[in-house]
Amino acid sequence: MKLAAVAFYGFALGLLAVGLRELLTGFEENRCSMTYMFEYPEYRRVALPRRVARLYPAYGLYLYGEGLYAQETRALKLTGAPVLFLPGNAGSHKQARSLGSVALRKAENVEGGLHFNVFTVDFNEELVALYGGSLLRQTHFLHESIKAILRLYKHLKSPPQSVVLVGHSMGGVLARALFTLPRFNTNLVGLIVTQASPHLAPVLALDPYLLDFYSAVRQKWVNQAKKLRNVTVLSVGGGYRDYQVRSGLTSLPCTPGDPNKLSLVATAVPRTWVSTDHLSIVWCKELVLATVRAFFDLIDPETRQFTVNPEKKMAVLNHHFVRHPVRMLGETEDISISDFPDEWSEVNTLRLAYSTPKEGQVKYFRFALSSRRKAYSHFYCRSNNMEMTSWVYGCVHKNSSSCVHAEDLSTETELLPPYKILILSLSDLASFTHLVVSASNLNGKQFTVECEWQRQESQTLSVPVPHVLSFGFTVSDVSLNSSGLLHTIKLQHFHQVYQAFRITVASQCKVNKDRLPNVYRIHVPWFGEDSLTTVSVPSVTEFSGMLHTSRPDNASGVLLQLHTAPNCQYKVSVRTSLPRVLGQILRFCGPMVPVYTAVTLLQACRGQLSSILKSRRAADMSLVVAKGLKPHKVNLPVYLLHILLGCSWFQEVWSFLYLPPMDALPSTQPDVGSPEGVPPVEEWPFLLSPLLYILGATVAYWGSTLLRFIMCLISVILAPLHRPSVTRDCGTLQLRTQLLVTLFLIVMGGVSCGALAIFAAFLLHFYRLLRLQMTERSLSHMLNLAPEKHRIAENGTVDSESLRKSKECNGAPLLSECALQEVRDDLQLHLCLSALSTLPVMLIAPSLIHWIRNLRYSTQLDPDPCWPSSVPLIIVYILLINCNTLKISNSKLLPLTSCLPLPLSIAMVTFSPLHLYRVTHFLLAALVPVALCCVL
């Protein structure tokens, strides 16, 4: 049995390790360029009113500067446009360096002296992603900081009326939380840019304050969406490199009709096209440049401040973060086309491939539309001339050789890494007679232009992706004989986040010559999470096919767009990748693993109590943990509850009992901003629950083994400091000592930090475990058990007949095998209880860390999420110190206590996936009866 358990959990540990490796390292290398400063940075503290400084002593407001600019702004006489950077979880105010330095360098090349004043807030690097008690305090300080910033511009004739906020991680959530304050003037903030901010839900909900904060922010932005239409919000996710905040959580909760909210992933941002980890998104040069360029385009030349026009703001953001066409919407450009006949060429073939000479010249190509309308549906053109100038026109009126009157069609240009492309639908060109493509290079720069007529139906194929359970043995492939520049493959049945594929594209060309690079693009229509891969031809390229969000019901499918080279053959193969599937499961369902770990330990506790009830002996810890994997007893009732909640009568009964809603992980679909804020319950997490249970049981099994190893190691180190003991009562406390210690810890938790008191009580119980381990080792050495081998029962206990034979000294059983077995039984019992008690300590760790880091400002944690549960936890831990198998076996409460872990496990899986702090409450409900068995 033990060997089989070790083999099974060893295999499960391998699966967990593969998934973790894929989650943490299974992505592309960091292709972000570092932003550098050319002068020493300075962070000048901005004085705040005394009331604000007294209320928030741990926080501060700073102005970023370097070199001459820092000297000019020492008196804080500012004339630029204010930008405020908000750090995130454990973030430093010095992270504003990249944004501030790039903005200063960019301002040197801008006429008229336009520049930005970049401010940054110091939140004392608090762990607000794990401890929500500081979020409201930080929001109030942010409000005071904005008012302080605007006061610095009172000397100007036209002072700014608002501040642009740039928030990283939880800083972006704080920026949106400003609008929940009762006295906040919504005109103080007109634009919010967030970087890797989990808007949809917290990554881990370890206390109720965090969820209450998110609920208030969501209700404000959803219920009052019309009032907040003038506030433009851009949310940028990091992509797969960011394993701390998955990009699906960065989706903004907003109604589909809200035009001023934009969510996307960094891999889809033009001129960026890279995935960033959670920290590099702040200093990634490509993304910082896109942000700064957008800021300069948002400046109103008359006021020299940020524009207040929502349409203008969205046009600029779409230009820099979505398509990056030739020019922004609303801009005009004089169309000047030469009419010299030598500069014009008529194109009568289906495809044009032209490379400009080294000498500068004016060149236009004319394509007649009349002969192509029936046979073709689209016109495709690309050029590696990356200058953002007009290059494709629609000819309305022409003479014999040139175009007399033309309209610019270049506004639909889209930027790709190696070239710009333009796809025109012929049905939209009814008013034009010809298309004109400019290939002029007056500056002598060489580039290539390729254009062709396309029949979209013939260049679009459909491929069903392999099933997720094919484990890579099934391959879906398609071959393309490239007679075109663009091919589209519809990836059928690819719509869930747990799907992950290895896509291989092999290209072969008959003639070796210089060609434009190929671009393979995975296009996700319902969310801005496109990913692009640029390769040379010929080549064999492999890339991942995964999703950040699941497909909504009314959305079209995922497309694989291949920008190919003509006269080449391509073979596309799609196969399931098991490591990446495991990585996706952990990415989206990771919070469920600690829940199932707690469930496994609860079932182990149930098995231990049942063993004591039947045989009055404790079973081996590894055996009861191995038997704690019981998905049929836990997952099946939970799934039945999910099905029954679809019935109206059961919902009425559920509401009548005042039960909270059934917990579910944050939705993997983009948030459509439903007012009730209840995410749609998805089926696939229930189907994956057995696998998650196995992973959680694996953590419990090997975690308990690690706990046993640590206990043995520490006991060996501490053994010389303790007198050897031969009784099971080692490490116990007298009643008066228990009362005094309990009272002291409760008072300490009330005046300082509840997590500290809980941790101290846990250490006292752990010391009892260490003393039992020392006693067991001492008795084993004192008794020479080698000549006599005992019969071992099936449950891991020693047979009762062999225990009757004991060694006596002068007729008294001072050192007996029975005494050793009693100590071993108590050791196994307390090892199980200690493993169960470790989980609450781990869940409250962020509160304890936050309290320690803020000791110099306050000795009391306020608010304290641990205080409600700290008192019963402390009492239970202290009572369990004197617990032993004899007391429990003689208790009349044991039959009832041994039955409680199973319903508590079902309740835990039902109500704790999103509310992780509830795990502590359920574990406490299981430990209280055990503690009562020691006294009743």
Summarize this, please?
This protein has 936 residues and is α+β, with helices and mostly antiparallel strands.
Number of E-state strands: 29
The oligomerization state is: single chain
- State Rg: 34 Å
Bin the strand percentage. Answer: 15-25%
The helix content is 25-40%
Overall structural class, as computed from helix and strand content, comes to alpha+beta
Q: Order the strands across the largest sheet as they lie in space.
A: 1-2-4-3-5-6-7-8
Sheet with most strands: 8 strands, mixed
Low-confidence parts, pLDDT < 50 over ≥5 residues? 785-795, 800-813
How many helix segments?
Answer: 27
Global outline? globular
Distance between the termini: 35 Å
The average pLDDT score comes to 89
What structural keywords apply?
single chain; 936 residues; alpha+beta; 29 strands; 38% helix; globular
Task: Provide a descriptive summary of the structure in words.
By secondary structure, the chain is of the alpha+beta class. The protein is 38% helix and 18% strand. β3, α4 and β4 (116-122) form a beta-alpha-beta unit. α1 packs across α17 (689-718). The protein is globular. The two termini are 35 Å apart. Mean pLDDT is 89; it is low at 785-795 and 800-813.
Please outline the helices and strands:
Elements: H1 2-25, E1 41-45, H2 50-55, E2 60-66, H3 67-72, E3 81-86, H4 97-107, E4 116-122, H5 135-151, E5 163-168, H6 170-177, E6 189-195, H7 208-223, E7 232-237, E8 261-265, H8 280-283, H9 285-297, E9 299-300, E10 305-306, H10 310-321, E11 344-347, E12 351-355, E13 364-368, E14 378-383, E15 392-398, E16 403-408, E17 414-415, E18 420-425, E19 434-438, E20 448-454, E21 460-464, E22 475-482, E23 486-492, E24 501-509, E25 518-523, E26 531-535, E27 539-545, E28 558-563, E29 568-576, H11 578-589, H12 592-615, H13 621-626, H14 631-644, H15 648-656, H16 684-687, H17 689-718, H18 735-751, H19 754-782, H20 800-804, H21 817-843, H22 845-853, H23 867-881, H24 885-889, H25 894-899, H26 901-911, H27 918-935
Parallel strand pairs: 3-4, 3-5, 5-6, 6-7, 7-8, 11-13, 21-23
Antiparallel strand pairs: 1-2, 2-4, 9-10, 12-20, 13-19, 14-18, 14-20, 15-16, 15-19, 17-18, 22-29, 23-28, 24-27, 24-29, 25-26, 25-28
Helix pairs in contact: 1-11, 1-17, 4-9, 9-10, 12-17, 12-21, 12-26, 14-26, 17-19, 18-19, 18-23, 19-21, 19-23, 21-27, 23-27, 26-27
